Amino acid sequence: MKPIQDIHCGCEARVSSSRLGGLPLWAVIAMAPLALGLWWLVYTHLKPAADFVTYRVLPLNPGSHWGEALAFFLYDTPKVMMLLVLVVFGVGVIRSYFSPERTRSLLAGKSLLAGNVMAALLGVVTPFCSCSAVPLFIGFVTAGVPLGVTFSFLIAAPMVNEIALGLLYGLVGFKVAALYAATGLCIAVAAGWTIGQLKLEGHIEDWVTRMNAVGGEAVAEKMTWKERIHYGWNAVVEIIGRVWKYILIGIALGALIHGFVPEAFMARIMGSGSWWSVPLAVVLGVPMYSNAAGVIPVVEALLGKGAALGSTLAFMMSVIALSLPEMVILRKVLKPRLIAVFIAVVAAGILVVGYLFNAVWA
Amino acid sequence: MMEIKILGPGCKKCDQAAARVAAVVSATGTQAQIEKVTDMMEIAGFGVMSTPAVVVDGKVMCVGKIPERDEIAAWLGAGS
What we know:
The complex is a heterodimer of chains A (about 350) and B (about 80).
Chain A (H helix, E strand, L loop, with lengths): L24 H20 L1 H12 L7 H31 L4 H8 L6 H12 L7 H10 L4 H13 L2 H10 L2 H24 L8 H5 L14 H36 L4 H5 L7 H9 L6 H13 L4 H13 L2 H7 L5 H26 L1
Helix pairs in contact in A: 2-3, 3-8, 3-11, 5-7, 5-9, 7-9, 8-9, 8-14, 9-17, 11-14, 13-15, 14-15, 15-17
Chain B lengths: L1 E6 L4 H17 L3 E6 L2 H6 L7 E4 L2 E5 L5 H11 L1
Parallel strand pairs in B: 1-2
Antiparallel strand pairs in B: 1-3, 3-4
Helix pairs in contact in B: 1-3
């Protein structure tokens, strides 16, 4: 079997031992409004600053290809980073209340549908990393979490995450971010429910089914508020440290599209007129193993050039939710037929979302 | 002799956890054997759902994070 270290796994982490020093809790809390105020002040002045640098400091003209591209890059990069810091920190603090063990005990023995909905929602807030997908899958299934419910969790966890939502909100707007979250959760619930109905328990690899339920003494950690803040801050350092290069590449690509691709060019390729644009977007997305950080700046630029919302959402979901490396990892515990069903069901869900929004937004 | 196992499929976090445990072991002069476990079957056998995890003498001490130095030192002290 191929060792996992050959597969790119999104969990390379930078460790920070940065603790909040000897600061008392009240000092940390008192600093919060100050930090937020400063954050807001800088955030609201990013656009004029980017324009100033591009058109005054540098001899570029508004409306020129390079000028448009550079202004876009200089504005979007700090904007996205600042938003991410805020969102990742907030979600990090929320996550400190959840653990896979706790989520598992909440889901064990849950009936279908109610269990699927819960699993999809918990998938958003439970700390999850795709290289622990296999132990997590085994832990869930052996503890009596139904297969379909487990899948709802495994689909929602990587797809609807704080990075995707933060970036979408910052770059494309609230409406698209909310749509993405809502439809992503619906796909997770529907796909998990379908897999549950198909009774595919026999297509889990035999060694998993033979395994005894392992309780796994959940190392229950009671955290103080200060520790939760520390946890949130660690999440910021770790996640931003991991994704900043993808964001830079993504925004640079987006900036070039923004500056050089003619208006309405994408409308012809990824427009809502052609029936094949949604399936094409899904197929193109599978081999692309990028995370949300890299793909969303590109998505923003595509939307700006007239790509249809449905096709774009489909592309984005396919890139994030259907990735080849993850299939290879899951192959260790799932027989080929179950993997095929998983791909088919999720792809079908993405297609429905794509067509739906192309029809509604046309 | 303590037996320490670092569970993890081999992502960077797991390597860092292993390196930190090794550093603390040699700093405290503890007699311990450190083993990296990358096999999914074995990892799952410990009931661990998020990696990296550290197992000391068969007992799961922490999951899903790189332990702090003082935590590791405490486990080493408790066993000897």
